[in-house]
Amino acid sequence: MSCTSTTPDLTAHDRALQVEAAIPPGLFRVENEQDRIAWRVASEPFGLSEEQLSQIERIGNDLLRFYKALNTLYTRSVRGTAPAFIAEYLDLGKPEHILRLSRQNRFKNDIPAVIRPDLLITESGFIASELDSVPGGMGFVGAMAHAYCSVGSESVGGRDGMARGFAEIFAAQTGKEHPSVAVVVSEESEDYRAEMRWLAADIARLGIADIAVVRPEQILFTEEALFVREEGGGEHRIDALYRNFELFDLLNVPKQELMLYAARHQRVRMTPPPKAHLEEKLSFALLHHYALQRLWVGELGEELFIRLRSLFPETWILDPRPLPPQAAIVGVTVAGRPVDDFMALAELTKSEREYVVKPSGFSELAWGSRGVKVANDLTREEWVEALRNGLAQFEKTPHILQRFHKPKRVRQSYLDRSSDEIRTFDGRVRLCPYYFVLGDEVRVGGILATIAPADKRLIHGMTDAVMASCALLPAEAALAR
């Protein structure tokens, strides 16, 4: 369906008001319960050039191949046909039951069916600072596309792109034209329940799948299948299960053993698969590891390997173990000198600290901006503490050191609620494309743009950031940007 406004001559101010009114409340967490919408609203989707959109579409297929290669190298490492340190690093901090799950033969080739990177727009192109295979935001982006469609603006993926993409991954996995799916949202992931319900309702409107958003307690197990207990008291069988809970929280999720048993015994299809090694940011460090280059090229081909090395920022695992006297940490220097200990970075001046420290994964601190330390935002004492803390947690919650890339400045307009006027500001952009995996290729269902004020070091949803879906710019507007 194309997007046509019923009131095509709206001013930018009135468009923003209509977009704001069209977004259902409760789809995005707000700090103040009085606030219906906790971000700045733009009158138009964020515009992308045709070249940028083409690159984003290619990145999706590149990331799918990266996941497959990472999965293969992990399996080979466990079996002894690739360096042991690959699995050793990816398994750090995981209890035995998580490792057994990751290595189940039933899930051997399974890859997350929804892939969402954080893409920063820099002067030299896109940088993927994060990669999320259990992402929030799907219903939120879908609702954004509907809201902008109401004023005649078609978002990337179309008005129904998120709903169709989400439904189609389960049709592809189950081989059923109209699959029955349970989206299981844990207590820890409660913030995402409202938006997943919106997405399920939109899919029901399209009539392309039956999606039930449920609590773990509503799952019923039999030897033949899994069922959902409906709020009205009825029951229905499900073909697939979307795991909207984190593996680090697994033991706190009721009935997780029954869900996993059913998935292992092919009573139900589960995505994302319970494979913790696919949810670690330190995989970026493995891609950049000089000793693994031949293996990566063998899995990816040289052209894709080079593209991914440019896409992912240089990353190192904060490993406190001493190096041999003749060794140095590849790519890390202080005053032009190689170093053999990450604590040597404490000597860097504030302007020289172009790094970020963050937890790798399998932790409540490893999603969003929690646990992220931008080095040149810290005092010297805070920087030293960030390094020490990251190194000290190596065996329990490994941390990574990542090269910091500053996004380029853009001018962005928004509706200022206090003055009731359209204003502009200098901002920096993070794009979150949602890729739905359909067999051996991906489809972009939608893209969320977050434009934070240029003086903010981290870009995330905040009260003074614009959040909007993305749209293809007309050629003349793309040239002007």
Automatic annotation (TrEMBL):
Organism, as annotated: mine drainage metagenome
This protein's name: Glutathionylspermidine synthase pre-ATP-grasp-like domain-containing protein
